[in-house]
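Task: sequence design from structure.
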């Protein structure tokens, strides 16, 4: 019997393969790297553990907790109440900023509060893009000081070029009372999907995919898929082996999936693939002597003159550094074609030192990574492109699954759910 093949042993691929194995289906899980996990990985160096940017587990569904309990993982995870802040003009205030403007400079705080009140009094319209949505919901002050510069720094396009397909879950929308309380320092409690999170007590985030991989008999590491033949339903590995499949679950990036296809793409499908946009992230991970300069888990930096959009201090939520040391994660957004890593990494370190959050002379370890892709860009072409690409792939017995294959923004909890859902869909289809 031809196996179900799964491409990519990140969280989604591992969850899918494990579900298929449990159902007794023949399955082969291919991972081109020598370790599982994809970007959900950790690297150990000089006694420090570095994740590939911030990876925190947000569990909101009972079935997620049950799944991790079954793997013996839940008891190894520690729950943390989020400590995150926004840094503007050398002033720091808790995140989310819209209910925590009290820590900003008085003039900035006034801008944000008055802008929100005016927008609230005017009532909301029917915005067509993210720029209009922010102005309608939050007002000119919060737009000017945070939302516009932060998102343009991260996504590297104007806010008017961003759609609204992503804002519902990820941008908390407070009411007037919460905003006023936030300007006076009276707001209590967290807000947003990441108000709390879980993280391994030790070992870094790699503990999750490593544990999942240990339960997958079908995992083949160092197995790169070089080509897929849709018509004859086989794929070719880097070793030259050709593998026939009954169904194919794909978890790698959607543009790269298209590039693997040997069959000639229809004109409209090729155009949709070219319309997809994303950004890379340069992650400068540092092991530093001394206590961390802040107790925050991470900080957001909208200021355009600073090269990074976010800086994390992972050792504030996990055992990731030797005694008397801490870790730092500096994240810089980059265009896909940019080759400025050698310039960007030192510049990011220098800028962090300039604002007093890094002592360069105390750096003991450094790991520089480029995550590509890192974030999907939700521009106005994305939805139309996906409405062509995803159904076309499914018509050809290919099942894109997870953050990158479905070209969306999602969390690790979603990755597990996506993998299990894909496996269930394949089993249902083959059983019908």
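Answer:
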């Amino acid at each position: 019997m031809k196996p179900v093949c799964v491409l990519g042993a990140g969280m989604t691929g591992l969850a899918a393969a494990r579900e298929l194995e449990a159902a007794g289906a023949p399955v082969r899980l291919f991972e081109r790297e020598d370790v599982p996990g994809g970007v959900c990985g950790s690297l150990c160096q000089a006694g420090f553990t570095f994740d590939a940017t911030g990876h925190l587990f947000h569990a909101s569904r009972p079935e997620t907790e049950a799944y991790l309990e079954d793997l013996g993982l839940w008891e190894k995870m520690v729950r943390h109440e989020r400590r995150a802040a926004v840094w503007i003009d050398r002033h720091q205030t808790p995140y989310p900023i819209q209910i925590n403007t009290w820590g900003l400079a008085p003039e900035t705080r006034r801008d944000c509060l008055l802008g929100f009140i005016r927008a609230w009094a005017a009532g909301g319209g029917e915005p067509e893009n993210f720029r209009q949505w922010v102005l309608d919901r939050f007002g000119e002050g919060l737009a000017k000081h945070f939302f516009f510069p932060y998102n343009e720094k991260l996504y590297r396009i104007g806010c008017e070029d961003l759609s609204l397909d992503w804002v519902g879950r990820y941008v908390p929308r407070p009411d007037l009372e919460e905003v006023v309380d936030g300007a006076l320092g009276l707001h209590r409690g967290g807000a947003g999907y990441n108000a709390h999170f879980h993280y391994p007590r030790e070992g870094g985030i790699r503990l999750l995919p490593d544990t999942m991989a240990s339960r997958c008999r079908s995992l083949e590491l160092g197995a790169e898929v070089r080509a897929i033949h849709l018509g004859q339903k086989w794929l070719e590995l880097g070793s030259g082996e050709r593998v026939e499949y009954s169904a194919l679950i794909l978890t790698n990036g959607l543009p790269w999936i298209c590039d693997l296809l040997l069959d000639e793409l229809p004109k409209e499908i090729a155009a949709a693939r070219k319309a997809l946009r994303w950004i890379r992230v340069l992650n400068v991970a540092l092991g530093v002597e001394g206590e961390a300069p802040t107790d925050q888990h991470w900080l957001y930096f909208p200021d355009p003159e600073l090269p990074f959009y976010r800086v994390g201090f992972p050792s504030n939520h996990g055992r990731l550094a030797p005694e008397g040391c801490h870790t730092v994660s500096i994240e810089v957004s980059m265009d896909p074609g940019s080759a400025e890593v050698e310039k960007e990494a030192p510049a990011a370190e220098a800028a962090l030192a300039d604002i007093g959050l890094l002592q360069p002379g105390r750096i003991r370890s450094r790991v520089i990574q480029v995550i590509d892709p890192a974030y999907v860009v939700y521009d106005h072409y994305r939805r139309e492109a996906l409405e062509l690409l995803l159904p076309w792939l499914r018509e050809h017995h290919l099942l894109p699954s997870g953050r990158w294959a479905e070209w969306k923004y999602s969390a690790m909890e979603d990755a597990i759910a996506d993998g299990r859902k894909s496996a269930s869909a394949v089993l249902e289809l083959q059983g019908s």
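The radius of gyration is 23 Å.
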